[in-house]
Specification:
Elements (H helix, E strand, L loop, with lengths): L1 H8 L5 E5 L4 E3 L2 E7 L5 E7 L5 E7 L2 E8 L2 E3 L3 E3 L2 E15 L9 E14 L5 E9 L2 E8 L7 E7 L2 E4 L3 E5 L12 E4 L5 E3 L2 E5 L4 E7 L7 E5 L6 E6 L8 E4 L2 E2 L2 E7 L2 H6 L2 H4 L15 E6 L1 H5 L14 H13 L4 E4 L26 H10 L3 E7 L4 H18 L3 E5 L14 H16 L3 E4 L15 E4 L6 H5 L5 H6 L4 H4 L37 H10 L4 E3 L4 H4 L5 H5 L7 E8 L3 E8 L2 E8 L4 E6 L9 E8 L12 E8 L4 E6 L4 E8 L2
Parallel strand pairs: 25-26, 25-31, 26-27, 27-28, 28-29, 29-30
Antiparallel strand pairs: 1-9, 2-3, 3-4, 4-5, 5-6, 6-14, 7-8, 7-13, 9-10, 10-11, 11-12, 12-23, 12-24, 13-22, 14-21, 15-16, 15-18, 17-20, 18-19, 19-24, 20-21, 32-33, 33-34, 34-39, 35-38, 36-37, 36-39
Helix pairs in contact: 5-6, 7-8
The protein binds 1-deoxynojirimycin and calcium ion.
The site of calcium ion (CA) has 5 residues, from loops.
């Protein structure tokens, strides 16, 4: 369905300029360059005399990606890799578009594109390749058009390669076909042998690249595998089906975009909109039901082992407890409350068809609770844990979505914690891509916003389906409740890696850092729990994460009683979750980041550091000249330390102007937040 739409959308390209423009045929080798509008980036398509096709990439005239192969192998050892050129079209495209929510309220989408139409030498099959060059990156994708000699087919290898030129270090996590919940490594490039994307690397001359994919539809997701004995050459490695096939497809087929952000500062990776721009605009006509918000939830208490998802003495989702969260949310202007464990079946987790998605436990009444929440102006965020059983979920999903719609529940958090059904399928394979995209489309039909846990990696589809609000796909806060947890450096890497794919439901905002407040009530429920868990950051760092890790549905994940009476909570309750502008003031991947976000005339600053304490100097030159602002500043206390004294915080106020420059001390594992309001 969406394949056809993609092809049609491309006809929006405003001009088809020339055929074979400025192409060179050297010794019967065909090359076609395409430049970014700024001319900073250049990519060349190369068709060698033997019919093999390649791409490369230059930044300021310097090759950063050497000639890298293109093509496919289809089932039956049938290679689709030697071509003759039919034609090559060049287009320029330029637009501004307004996302429904996001890190900025207007996005420029400007690129030069070539469409290369190829015909296979031996079997005359047709294959087209699109190259797009933006000022902040490059992308290519394949199209296999409708043709009589190719209908249904199976891809057994995508022959796309990336051969990096230069000396690099990189931030990466192991490719895993079933989970994205990993820590990251920082190593020289040659240690990164099989990686998940976004894969972020830095050349020795400070060029930053991040490789990812965009617009994944009816294809499998990509990992990158370093080729043995080859110098810095990575091959696209697709996550397989249970039977070993990589992609089962038919013509017309459009692959996801293979995209690389290129920038000369780390913040450029975050400020780039390349992944969103590579997706189609939305066909929704009514966006009124899509509402970014901060939310609380009956959630952390289960992860801490204070309460449980299923019925019993310690059931979390009782009417009384839900009303307690709703009252607290209403009092503090927090718009949403997530309720996990309200529906029967949690005691069957791991069995087939375990969850009932419509029947509440006896001590919970969903009608009453949603009505109560509405009366207080609070949205209930529904929950569907599937345990990975997609078949069961697909059988019940319409009934379950219809119930939420009828009740007025507009957001649903989904979860896939467990092995996939159909048995043997990988979480990140084509089978699941089909499932996740189907759920996204059905959610749109029922006007439901989605927060997907254990998802496939995001690829910018929320441009087309803005109801796909956020996703986990990250080793998030929950790991601090029941494992050795996440080191402070983890959140200093995430904005430059996982964050490039899209919003992250990391669920920050824990105030009881050493988890001591309820220690006596906690019951171990997870084998990774060593009995000595804590959150590895200062409280100011937790506040800053609410701003640093972008999500339009942002969870303040601690318990109401841990927020109650703490002055720092006022930063959370006022925090917007959709922005007019975002600037990375300064950053060093894995070490620290200072990010500033604007909503109307107000600015918010969040900064975090890794295990090292540091002094950060902030120039306020992004503020309007000759205007006076009032800043409320949340800083680590003098004696703060993420392990020894995490809750030491100082809150102060100051008047600030654009000409000011101030320095702040961040503790080890610490942070800094500011709310800067325009006074005149
Ligand atoms: C794992 C999810 O990440 C978490 O948020 C959820 O609470 C549990 N699964 C239960 O569904
Ligand atoms: Ca999870």
């Amino acid at each position: 369905m969406r394949i056809i739409k993609n092809i049609l959308t491309r006809s929006y390209l405003i001009s088809t300029l020339v055929l074979l423009i400025s192409s060179k045929i050297i010794a019967r080798e065909f090359t076609q360059s395409v430049y970014s509008p700024s001319k900073v980036l250049e990519s060349k398509f190369i068709l060698r005399q033997d019919g093999t096709a390649y791409w490369n990439l230059l930044f300021n005239g310097d090759t950063i990606i050497k000639n890298s192969s293109l093509g496919f192998v289809l089932k039956g050892n049938d290679s689709l890799m030697r071509f003759r050129l039919i034609k090559c079209k060049t287009n320029y495209f330029n637009e501004y578009w307004k996302p429904v929510w996001g890190q900025s309220s207007i996005i420029k989408n400007e690129y030069n594109e070539i469409k290369i139409e190829l015909k296979e030498i031996s079997n005359s099959r047709l294959l087209n390749i699109f190259f797009r060059v933006y000022n902040d990156g490059f992308a290519f994708r394949y199209e296999i058009p409708v043709q009589s000699s190719l209908k249904d087919f199976v891809i057994t290898s995508e022959e796309s390669r990336i051969c990096f030129k230069g000396k690099y270090d990189c931030w990466w996590s192991w490719a895993d076909y079933n989970t994205l919940e990993k820590l990251f490594y920082h190593t020289p490039l040659d240690s990164a042998t099989h990686v998940a994307t976004p894969f972020t690397i830095r050349r020795s001359d400070n060029i930053y690249l991040s490789v990812h994919e965009a617009d994944i539809d009816n294809y499998s997701t990509m990992t990158l595998k370093r080729e043995k004995d080859e110098d810095q050459k990575y091959k696209v490695n697709l996550v397989p089906w249970a039977d070993g096939d990589l992609v089962k497809t038919c013509t017309p087929m459009l692959s996801p975009w293979r995209a690389i952000i290129v920038t000369n500062k780390p913040g450029g990776l975050i400020e780039s909109n390349l992944i969103l721009n590579l997706n189609d605009s939305s066909e929704f006509t009514d966006f009124s039901w899509i509402k970014p918000m901060t939310y609380l939830g009956i959630w952390w208490e289960m992860h801490l082992g204070i309460s449980q998802w299923y019925m019993g003495d310690k059931h979390g989702a009782t009417i009384e407890n839900a009303k307690r969260y709703i009252d607290f949310a209403a009092k503090h202007n927090v718009k949403g409350v997530l309720i996990e464990g309200w529906n029967t079946g949690w005691e069957n987790w791991g069995k087939s068809d375990a969850f009932d998605f419509v029947t509440p436990y006896k001590d919970f009444d969903i009608v009453e609770v949603v009505k109560y929440a509405k009366s207080k102006g609070v949205e209930i965020i529904g929950h569907h844990e599937t345990g990975g059983d997609t078949k069961s979920y697909e059988r019940h999903i319409e009934e379950a979505f219809a119930l939420y719609q009828k009740l007025g529940v507009n957001v649903v958090k989904t979860g896939y914690a467990g092995p996939v059904v159909p048995v043997g399928e990988n979480h990140h394979g084509q089978c699941m891509v089909q499932h996740y995209n189907k759920v996204m489309e059905l959610a749109a039909k029922y006007k439901l916003m989605l927060d997907v846990h254990e998802p496939i990696i995001l690829s910018g589809l929320s441009r087309t389906f803005p109801n796909l609000m956020t996703a986990e796909g990250v080793r998030g806060m929950e790991w601090n409740a029941w494992s050795e947890g996440n080191p402070p450096s983890h959140t200093c890497i995430l904005p430059f890696t996982r964050g490039i794919a899209g919003p992250m439901d990391y669920t920050p905002g824990i105030f009881d850092i050493d988890l001591s407040k309820h220690a006596s009530e906690r019951k171990k429920w997870n084998s990774l729990d060593n009995g000595n868990t804590s959150v590895h950051s200062t409280i100011t760092n937790q506040l800053a994460l609410m701003l640093v890790l972008y999500s339009p549905l942002q969870m303040a994940s601690d318990l109401p009683e841990n927020y109650d009476g703490n002055k720092a909570f006022s930063f959370i309750k006022d925090l917007p979750t959709t922005w007019d502008e975002t600037k990375v003031i300064e950053a060093s991947i894995g070490e620290y980041i200072i990010i500033a976000r604007r909503k109307a005339n107000d600015w918010y600053i969040g900064a975090i550091t890794n295990e090292e304490k540091r002094e950060l100097n902030i120039s306020f030159s992004f503020l309007e000249n000759n205007k006076l602002y009032k800043a409320v500043i949340y800083e680590d206390g003098e004696d703060a330390h993420y392990e020894k004294n995490p809750e030491s915080m100082v809150i102060s106020e100051s008047k600030i102007r654009a000409m000011d420059s101030l320095s702040f001390k961040l503790a080890c594992g610490g942070g800094l937040c500011m709310k800067i309001r325009l006074l005149n």
